[in-house]
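#lab-general

N.A. 3:47 PM
ok so I finally got the sequence cleaned up, no stray characters, all 160 residues accounted for. can someone with queue access submit it? mine expired

B.Y. 3:52 PM
send it over

N.A. 3:53 PM
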Amino acid sequence: MFRSGLSNTVLRSAAQRSLLLSSRGAGFAPAHRYLAARFITDRAKAMIDDTISQNDLVVFMKGTPDEPMCGFSRAVIQVLQMHGVDEIAGVNCLQDPEIREGIKEYTDWPTIPQVYVKGEFIGGCDVMVQMHQSGELHELLVKEGILKADAETDVTDKEK
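B.Y. 4:20 PM
back already:
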């Protein structure tokens, strides 16, 4: 990958920088600052852009909507299904390391899954669960046309 071609003095992770500074003592002041650099490949950015623009609801996840490969991805899919969402465009981040890392940089959100509705980043599992519990998720799905307005509004009946 491109990062491996960069010299160690130009690019260091936050963990490496903090270890380096802490090992030199509290009074140490570096002569120069390291620039933090992150890279998303053009291919990954184009794929993410295309997927988000071509689908009303996208979940970048571990696994697929039919076979989630982690509990957080499974929870997001279950919440969406509880609301009656039938069409979920799932992108399996485990199949492509560029997408797996690129999606985190694309949104500046450190975790997977990530949910997009009509091109807008909504959040991850915790946000989806909170929105479900507060009723905001249903409102958003109706407002954006993912669900019809006459769809069942009381999701708690399905939970019983």
